[in-house]
């Protein structure tokens, strides 16, 4: 058997898998396309092993390792897809671009809400939450600098 036949078939399989990875929007179909690409690599490994008549059959041994790694990859990939589908309700790649959880607009205890009237660090406060002097009290005639000077003078 010529080496050309399995090599062409492997190239077609790999190109089909590559197209699936680049063009698909569903995560499951992308995982299936990755499997096609790995199977094309396996076909090349076995074909070159037979063509070279390797006594150790290293191409076939590498193929077994590749199959085991592909099985683990699919198991972990499907577990991640199921977890994402439970949390987000979709497996569409375009809708999953932002992996961070978006804040709930109805949450009354959002710590970064600039419109919160009870927030001591509102939009007009120049001192952030990490300010060692605490929030600036607009009714206090002595600013934080004056408090430092008074504390140093008292010491």
Produce the secondary structure layout.
Layout: H1 4-23, H2 27-52, H3 58-88, H4 144-154
Helix pairs in contact: 1-2, 2-3
Description of the molecule:
With 155 residues, the chain is mostly helical. It is built from four helices and no strands. Helix 1 packs antiparallel against helix 2 and helix 2 (27-52) packs antiparallel against helix 3. The longest helix has 31 residues, at 58-88. The protein is elongated, with a radius of gyration of 31 Å. The chain starts with a helix and ends with a helix. 6% of the residues are buried. The model has no long low-confidence stretch (mean pLDDT 80).
Give a brief description.
This protein has helices at residues 4-23, 27-52, 58-88, 144-154. The protein is an all-alpha fold.
Rg estimate, integer Å: 31 Å
Total helical elements:
4
N-to-C SSE string, H for helix and E for strand: HHHH
- How widely separated are the two ends? 95 Å
Helix fraction?
55-70%
Tags for this entry?
57% helix, 155 residues, elongated, mainly alpha
